[in-house]
Design goal:
There is one protein chain. By secondary structure, this protein is of the alpha/beta class. The chain has one domain: Spore Coat Polysaccharide Biosynthesis Protein SpsA, Chain A. The protein contains four helices and nine strands.
Length: 159
């Protein structure tokens, strides 16, 4: 399935060690926007090796403002905000395939698993937190998305 109505948007800087896996997981999207803010490694050349990736280079304004600025560059109204070290698994893609893009007021949450040195972190307040990553940029700004009343999980924990 080719996702034409949702654009993943990623901000990056010196992400050569993680960006390829991230972009590999997004091959089923017609467009992916990578906003790079000053990489000095091979991040940009890796991104440009993917036919569906639009690379934009610019300044860093802080995480929230930079993510929102990058989202403005997406060719679709629906934005899937990801980090360069994250990847979508099949379960999330399956959920996205049934997403009602006409419901512009609902946002999508993704379960974040935190890893360090190949070990899942589940203590000290880390782990199993849902974060809003899918939203319609015409109606909801990522900075205020957490205050919306309607949300739906787009990625569930692995069994």
């Amino acid at each position: 399935m080719l996702f034409e109505d949702i654009t993943p948007v990623i901000i990056s800087k010196n992400s050569e060690n993680t960006i390829k896996r991230c972009l590999e997981s997004l091959k089923s999207f017609k467009h992916v926007v990578v906003y790079d803010n000053g990489s000095t490694d091979d991040t940009i050349s890796i991104c440009r090796s993917f036919d569906n990736v639009i690379v934009i280079e610019g300044d860093f304004f802080g995480f929230g403002p930079t993510k929102n600025y990058a989202a403005e560059k997406a060719p679709t109204d629906w934005v899937l905000s990801l980090d360069s070290d994250e990847e979508l698994h099949q379960g999330a893609l399956d959920e996205l395939s049934s997403w009602d893009i006409k419901d512009t007021q609902t946002v999508g949450q993704i379960l974040r698993e935190n890893w360090f040195c190949d070990k899942k972190i589940t203590t000290n307040g880390w782990g199993n937190d849902f974060i809003i990553r899918l939203y319609n940029k015409k109606y909801i700004d990522l900075l205020i998305a957490k205050y919306t009343k309607k949300s739906r999980s787009i990625a569930k924990p692995k069994p």
